[in-house]
Design brief:
single chain; globular; alpha+beta
């Protein structure tokens, strides 16, 4: 009898509808990370120039690099429906700026999709599309760098207008 109940439960679980996509990216869109990412140059204070989270414009994030592929995170987490406290650690776990946090960002892999050659503007996102954001060292970021950042978002399947300017 237990096997029958267990089999029925598994069958029902298999039929459950997947969670709806959050709507920031096109379903099935390709996503790529920054091939020439330098963890030490990425370290430091960033300001949120654009995000899909209302109320995050201008929020600060600190990425303190430990010299061994990890960061101590602090500031504001702009990956959810509303701003939250960003705290914890994150470790570079893959090539091209693929970073895994232990607490912030919904514990989802964070990919650095692009950073300009002088590390003034960066674009972050997740393969799931749950969040995407543009970070800048100083606000407002140069117009050409803002334009490039939004082109990178579009290239990676982010929908126009879902991440504020």
């Amino acid at each position: 009898m237990r096997r029958l109940i267990w089999a029925a439960a598994l069958g029902l679980a298999a039929c459950a509808a997947p969670a709806p996509a959050p709507g920031l990216r096109e379903d099935g869109a390709w996503i790529s990370s920054a091939g020439l990412f330098d963890p030490a140059r990425f370290a430091g204070r960033w300001k949120v120039a654009a995000s899909g989270t209302p109320g995050c414009a201008g929020a600060t994030q600190d990425w303190a690099y430990d010299g061994h592929g990890g960061y101590a995170l602090s500031g504001v987490d702009c990956s959810g429906a509303k701003p939250a406290v960003l705290a914890g650690r994150a470790v570079v776990t893959g090539p091209g700026g693929r970073i895994t946090p232990d607490k912030g960002f919904g514990r989802e892999p964070v990919w650095v999709l692009w950073v300009d050659q002088d590390y003034r503007v960066a674009v972050l996102g997740t393969p799931s599309g749950r969040f995407g954001m543009v970070l800048a060292r100083d606000l407002p970021a140069r117009a050409d760098l803002r334009t490039a950042a939004h082109e990178v978002l579009s290239f990676n399947g982010y929908l126009p207008g879902k991440i504020g300017r």
